[in-house]
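hey can u check if this looks right to u? its 313 residues, i copy pasted from the old doc so theres a chance i mangled smth
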Amino acid sequence: MYKVLLTCPPMIGLVDRFHDAFAQAGLEVTVPEFTQIVPEDRLIQIVPDYDGWIIGDDPATRAVFEAGKAGRLKAAVKWGVGTDNVDFDACKDLGLPITNTPGVFGREVGDLAMHYVLALARQTYEIDAGIRAGGWPKPSGISLWNKTAGVVGFGDIGRNTVKRLLAHDLEVTVFDPFAQADDLPEGVTLETWPGVEDLDFLIFTAPLTPQTQHMFNKDVLARTKPGLRLVNVGRGPVVQQAAVLDGLKSGHIHSAALDVFEVEPLAKDNPLHSYGMRCLFGSHNGSNTQDAVTAVSLKAVGLLAGFLQARPV
């Protein structure tokens, strides 16, 4: 029986569903006490006690993997798509098998991106809050059929977001240096960043890399149309918070929907809170549906079991 450390909150939330899968794979799972991530110093202490590790958004650094390698750690799986918190090079150097679970969550995060676009356009969250407070607000929103949206990133999430935007009759522009014009849906244009001047909505679905960090900054803000509605369902540091605050303060940004932030969780004293109904906040929860979590979690168990040469799920 291999011992496995599980530090992925969405999977932990439904962990009872996966006991049979772990058992069939010869894996004994342990869930430590934590909130969003396990700090690096604690990981250095506990990871060496396990043969395998299913990683969430924790700081899976070289120091953690070196400590794990010096102990029992034989393999790891990064749950989900994003890998910016995991030192894959360290694993390669140490001879530790590791992978993520690519090609998942595009539909779920695309759904959330579209939800945010609709919410910012029609200010439904403001109406809900007003009614709960005893009022009957009727803010005048905007239609989507004559608007233009820019989608940054044309991976699985970006493709699904574009599909949903087209179904709502928006004109769509894609920003992705790896995308090919002949691979785009009919009517979608490919633009070089930061050609953002004509956009009504700007939607970030891109992963965090050295090239994408702070792609949206004060210089890019200055190029956007007044009244921009901003959505980020990718990674927090892709969008510079200082630029968002400048845009909200000046009114250049009409409103923003942020499922991710530069520092998570969002602190109570973060200045974004001061903009009230002009900001719609998420909890880095775009992929978290029962259906998707179940499918990806079973995939993660199977991958780890394969690495550990246990019976596959």
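The mean pLDDT is 95.
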